[in-house]
Amino acid sequence: AQSVAQPEDQVNVAEGNPLTVKCTYSVSGNPYLFWYVQYPNRGLQFLLKYITGDNLVKGSYGFEAEFNKSQTSFHLKKPSALVSDSALYFCAVSAAYSGAGSYQLTFGKGTKLSVIP
Amino acid sequence: KAGVTQTPRYLIKTRGQQVTLSCSPISGHRSVSWYQQTPGQGLQFLFEYFSETQRNKGNFPGRFSGRQFSNSRSEMNVSTLELGDSALYLCASSLDRGPYGYTFGSGTRLTVV
Fold first, then answer.
1. How far apart are CA A38 and CA A87, in angstroms?
2. pLDDT in tens, A28-74
3. Which chain B residues are closer than 8 Å to A88 by Cβ?
4. How far apart are the first and last CA of chain B?
5. How many CB pairs lie under 8 A apart between chains A and B?
6. Cross-strand partners of B87
7. Nearest neighbour of B99 by CB, restricted to A32, A90, A109
8. What residues are paired with B56 via a beta bridge?
9. Distance between CA atoms of residues B110 and B113, nearest Å
10. Model confidence over A74-99: pLDDT tens digits?
């Protein structure tokens, strides 16, 4: 079974400060890891993904995430937060695709990010 | 290009009724997956369809069903609605199987009264 933990329900950060949203995962074999953002009454918007390769992944809107296999973590980071970054952030994991089997995403519970002006 | 289109956006139904939700994927995408989002359970996988065949199903009762048409459009149906079925239902499409190319729609908000 695969699982994702986002240990913080809410993260508050001042505008202009760096932000980190934490995520740890559990999956059999190699993971595919994702971050999505959700604004009120909207669907999920893709931010970035780790499939293979460099452990530091750069995504949309200045976000990045670092894959750490030994700590089974995939924390989301941004050097300077904007008020418009305030939203709900989801980390998700899937087993690496091998041509058969199931590849659905398992999501964390989400972390509400509030950027204070 | 057009994104993933889900209709209707909002729906109110009475307990015991049934409901059908629709998802039109991005042109050329062959895989459609459905997820349920509730405050209590979060985001949970419902089904995956690829080339008109259900490839994978989540842990939901048989009241939840779906299908995919030859043009890749998908529908999901919930029969005998319960209050707990109130949720945001999200559809995601991708070119092939696997979630690494997902694009999500804006969802259908179902309220059961």
1. 6
2. 888 899 999 999 878 899 999 998 888 999 999 999 999 999 999 99
3. none
4. 37
5. 62
6. B110
7. A32
8. B48
9. 10
10. 999 999 999 999 999 999 998 766 56
